[in-house]
Design a protein that fits this description.
Layout (H helix, E strand, L loop, with lengths): L4 H9 L4 E10 L9 E5 L4 E3 L7 H14 L3 E6 L16 E8 L4 H8 L4 E8 L9 E5 L12 H14 L6 E6 L5 E9 L4 E5 L5 H10 L3 E5 L16 E3 L3 H5 L8 E5 L4 H12 L5 E4 L3 H13 L4 H4 L2 E2 L11 H25 L1
Parallel strand pairs: 10-11, 10-13, 11-12, 13-14, 14-15
Antiparallel strand pairs: 1-2, 1-5, 2-3, 4-5, 6-7, 6-9, 8-9
């Protein structure tokens, strides 16, 4: 729903009836990925896209039908070499499944999306018992109550359990779950996690390409440095936020979540140690620091003196970045960001298997 959140807010506030179409599976080449959404109102207002335009008319028509009848439907679009390209399908050769439903009470979900609170919505997309198709549950972090109308108790318990696990990290996907009758139901888990954040401590030469690469990958970039001459928008145009302050003081004002990566690049104990101590005591999903082996050993002693435990120190990725033989600032930035992404994806895969 994040794709069309602003429009949904307005339409629902105006009392419009709305249908939501979501790409729940994708095979091969397709214009939009799993999770892409399109919304349509009973007044024919449309927002979002599920295919870049090639199947939208059919999806919109089905959305209007869902608004009238309240009945959801799972649509499949694809094209093979044998199919006539004039038929409705994906000319790029892939296949997508799109679930179309009339939206009910999603106020709590929209609140979570507006405030960047982790949200997972589970919706039944297919089942032998057609009465439960379209039923859904939402699980939101911070113990925010959300509606759950799945009537099959076994399926409801399984869906809620998996949705809670995915709050820690995971990707949107369809999963087969068992109903009380022993049948198999297909449930789509729409995972909405906060935008990943990269906090760079130190506005040195590596921070410039690191900020640029992180922005390309969709990270919100914050750079912290107590030196005013280094921490400027002119040097760091890709940073959405630049904080001129001591790192530990700045980090105390920033929420550090599992979606946060902290890269300490100052190479100076008076900055490194307070910054690392603050990051390691937080829920930050990644903490890395630049420095040679000798520097790391000296820094670890200082961290222990500051009350940081060996278990917390073990969380530090150091030397920071994947070992790709990087030499230039740009290559070092690439190595750092690659390690951040690898750590994040590994955490998400572990959560999905939990």
């Amino acid at each position: 729903m994040r794709d069309v959140m602003k429009e949904l807010d307005r339409w629902l506030a105006e009392g419009n009836r709305v249908a939501l179409a979501t790409v729940v599976t994708r095979k091969g080449s397709a214009p939009r990925d799993v999770g892409a959404t399109l919304a349509v109102t009973d007044k024919m207002e449309v927002s979002g896209s599920v295919s870049g335009g090639c199947v939208e008319p059919a999806v919109i028509e089905e959305g209007l039908r869902a608004i009238r009848t309240g009945k959801p439907k799972l649509l499949t679009f694809g094209i093979s070499e044998e199919q006539n390209v004039e038929r409705i399908g994906l000319s790029c050769g892939g296949e997508i499944a799109v679930f179309v439903e009339r939206l009910g009470d999603v106020g709590a979900s929209l609140h979570a999306l507006r405030n960047d609170i982790p949200l997972v919505r589970a919706v039944v997309t297919a089942a032998p018992d057609t009465q439960i198709v379209g039923q859904s549950c939402a699980v939101i972090a911070d113990e925010i109550e959300a509606p759950c109308d799945i009537t099959d108790d076994t399926l409801k318990a399984a869906a809620l359990s998996q949705a809670r696990a995915l709050l820690a990290g995971g990707e949107s996907h369809v999963e087969a779950l068992t109903t009380s009758a022993g049948d198999e139901a297909q449930v789509y888990f729409d995972v909405n996690l906060p935008q990943p954040t990269l906090i760079v401590v130190g506005a040195g030469h590596i921070s410039i390409p690191l900020s640029q690469l992180a922005r390309v990958l969709g990270y919100h970039v914050t750079v912290i440095d107590a030196r005013e001459t280094f921490a400027t928008p002119e040097r760091l145009p890709e940073a959405q936020e630049i904080i001129v302050a001591w790192p530990d003081e700045a980090l105390a004002r920033i929420p550090l979540t599992p979606s946060t990566a902290v890269a300490v690049l100052t190479h100076d104990d008076k900055f490194d140690v307070p910054a690392l101590a603050a990051a390691l005591r937080s829920k930050a999903g990644y903490v890395g620091a630049i420095g040679s082996r000798g520097t790391r050993e000296k820094r670890n002693r200082r961290l222990r003196e500051a009350g940081v435990t060996d278990e917390q120190i073990a969380r530090i990725h150091g030397p920071i970045g994947l070992d790709i033989g990087a030499q230039t600032p740009e290559e070092i930035a690439l190595a750092i960001l690659a390690q951040i992404v690898a750590t994040r994806r590994q955490t998400e895969r572990s959560a999905s298997r939990a």
